[in-house]
Amino acid sequence: MKRFMLSMAAGLLLSLGAQAQVGQKFPELKGETVSGKSLRLPQDVKGKFTLLGLAFSKKSDDALQTWFQPTYDRFMVDKESAGLFADFVYDVNVYFVPMFTGANKAAAGPARKSMLKNVDAELHPHVLFYIGELAPYRDQLGLVEKDEPYFFVLDESGKIVYATSGAYSEQKMDQVEEILSEE
Question: What is the structure's pLDDT at 183?
């Protein structure tokens, strides 16, 4: 069943235009959350499935934000507040990663301040600012469309088990949830 899921994910990956190789290890990415915590992915999230959303332009960031509420509702609800549905809460890391590269590096500070004011405080630990070079990620993950956000599900070891791109859709979220349900 697991092979079938990986094959299905790989097929969907190709049909949606994401170029990352399912099965490859996610490349190291260092950043800082809106709340100020430094993280190194995938090293600091090993042992747990992780959903990552990457954006590296204004348009892709806008599309990335379409995932905030649905992702929060499905994967970030606290078990204690879930009541009768606590057994259906996923134990998964979630990070949205705006990438500030090239001339846009200077915009990271103002963007962080804006996030602090305009984004729900419960999401602050889940927004990871990356400031650096795009080329290693573009090349290794196939980030070819600058106006699209890219999403990756990493397994417990940091290996990519699913990838997609674009604004939120129920179909994409269902695929993510199906993969997380298998584990």
Answer: 64
